């Protein structure tokens, strides 16, 4: 595998930073509810941008590096779509005006980028110094896959959320209603207080932190390049805001998405454990020697499993939705 030129890495981050800045300024200057057509065009633009980037990686480094990026990007994009389920619930529970939901999503994306950047830097250093962390990452992903496959308890989530709201309101003066998209407002008595938008940002920030803990070990199971990990995360998060409005009304139809993500996380968890066995340095496992029979799963196999699993989940969800509609119409 060839190393990327420094100018390519620096240039990539500069261009991506400018695109994100332009996206943020657009949201601030023109808050509105994007149409399905507008959202679709933006999503297509960002997906096309990611594919162009993958093609450039192929030209500079060959198929392996490019394949790792595509596998990582698809995985992170899939996990980001799962993020949308939570965002939709947060927006609904806090009754965020739809006109200002773009701003909330953009802040959430920025928080996610910062948190994931920190996790990636720490993860890259830990992996370089302590290869046995692959055992930990693998076991964590297998546990996450099992947990994700179980039905969620809405009651527990609501209790945690209510506790968070009460804790924030207890220490910070806050109004009961929104003031457009403002974080702070002035009461009739002239006192400066926060709006419920603060609680929304805190909730999304905590959610992003939890998703970062899940997603970063997953992509490190596909590539150990910090540059690939970070760019895959940026491309996955870019366009997430538009995807929210494009799929907002269709999210309940993707009934098998969570099952697909469980399969993908379990597969990457197994891949990580096998890799840990292959580069084993723990003295109490095989005398600290590599376990030669542990196979390394190639990148193209990982990509095929990830894409195939998502395709099956989407098709199965569409079939399930149509059958459900047919039964309702027949009844």
UniProtKB/TrEMBL annotation:
Protein name per the record: TerC family protein
Organism placement in taxonomy: Bacteria, Bacillati, Actinomycetota, Actinomycetes, Micrococcales
Membrane spanning residue stretches: 6-28, 40-63, 69-92, 104-124, 130-146, 193-213, 219-240, 260-277, 297-319
Entry keyword set: Membrane, Transmembrane, Transmembrane helix
Pfam family, one: TerC
Its membrane topology: Multi-pass membrane protein
Family according to the record: Belongs to the TerC family.
InterPro entries found in the cross-reference section: Integral_membrane_TerC, Integral_membrane_TerC_rswitch
Localization annotation: Membrane
